[in-house]
């Protein structure tokens, strides 16, 4: 049994500091993730995965990618972005 679930509308901002083009600057993205779940037997309520579990996944993805700023761990301007995060100007994630 399989279930494919799409989690979308995750808007974030990312900088690719090694890019020589426009992605050197902060760039907005609308991300979506499609996850496939599989099992040999369905749960007692005839589901592949519980609604509660899907909600937990949605919450985790939103916490990581919902209106956040993604900065590489080795970004030479990381200190500046950390300062912006400390001042609540960005909700930063190190990737």
Can you offer a commentary on this structure?
- By secondary structure, the chain is α/β, with parallel strands linked by helices.
- It has helices at residues 51-65, 78-86; strands at 2-14, 27-38, 68-71, 92-94.
- It contains 2 helices and 4 strands, in the order ββαβαβ.
- Strand 3 (68-71), helix 2 (78-86) and strand 4 form a beta-alpha-beta unit.
- The two termini are 33 Å apart.
Quick tags:
single chain
Low-confidence stretches: none
Radius of gyration: 17 Å
The number of helices is: 2
Order of neighbouring strands in the sheet with most strands? 2-1-3-4
Shape by Cα distribution: elongated
Reading the helices and strands in chain order gives EEHEHE
Largest sheet: 4 strands, mixed
Number of strands: 4
What's a concise summary of this model?
This protein is of the alpha/beta class and 95 residues long.
Q: What is the strand and helix layout of this fold?
A:
Elements: E1 2-14, E2 27-38, H1 51-65, E3 68-71, H2 78-86, E4 92-94
Parallel strand pairs: 1-3, 3-4
Antiparallel strand pairs: 1-2
